[in-house]
Amino acid sequence: MLTLEDGLNDKFGNGNLIYETTFAGDTLVKLEYGQNGFDRMVHHDVVLTQRGTYAFITNVHVDGLIVDGITELIAYGNKVWEWDMTSHVLPIKPGTEFSQPWGNSIEEDGNGNYLLSFRNLCQIWKVDALSGEVIMKFGQGEGLGLSDVDLPLYQHHAQCLGCDNYLLYDNGDIEKRSYSRLIKYHIDSENRLANVDHVVELPSSLFSPFMSSVEQYNDGYISASSIAKKVAFINKDGQVKWTMQFGDRMFRAQLVNVSNVS
Length: 262
Hints:
The protein is globular, with a radius of gyration of 18 Å. The N and C termini lie close together (12 Å). The relative contact order is 0.09. The protein has one helix at residues 86-89, and strands spanning 2-5, 17-21, 27-32, 42-48, 54-62, 65-73, 79-84, 103-108, 114-118, 123-127, 134-139, 156-162, 165-170, 181-188, 193-201, 213-217, 220-225, 230-235, 240-245. The protein has one helix and 19 strands. With 262 residues, the chain is mainly beta. Helices cover 2% and strands 46% of the residues.
């Protein structure tokens, strides 16, 4: 189990501590900002890679602006790889305003490349884990044949399901589209074509314009609607079969294989 913590009371809510623990509470790995190659604060998400390394989203400060990046560490804290999106979003075009792209999830695909979600861009990117090349962009402004109504709006928790299929929590927005969706896309980045494979429009009781997550489960989805403080199971027909109410907002809900818990 991976845990990201803010032990510095950072004003931006960034994390400086990464723990890998067992479900019994035993610490396997502790990584701390400022030690060895851990030289960028973490924000939002960290993943244990197929290579056994720890990759996370970082803030990168460039000429008074903040862009997002990736840092990859081994268990001893040594840095083995890093990337940032500076060359992709800077310099700013004249007459435009800049806001941090706001990466909010990082996952691996089957080839070990990184899938990133950028909330403020309303896009997901795939980055080659060796070269740093951006090998896919999809979303607002990069619709790959889809109309704007089918594209994500301030999405979270983008995941690669294999065979060019992707799943995400499409948050929506209070003013622009006041409902959330769970969407599966098929994205052929080589031919620059995308289509909606499956979509579930969530009821107003599960609308969450911020944070939130989704995972496939059996014939439906487990979804965390953070602002509603609810986790729900929704079947493939969009029917809410059960919900769990929590006392506070959660960033994400993830499935655990109980047979592997010790």
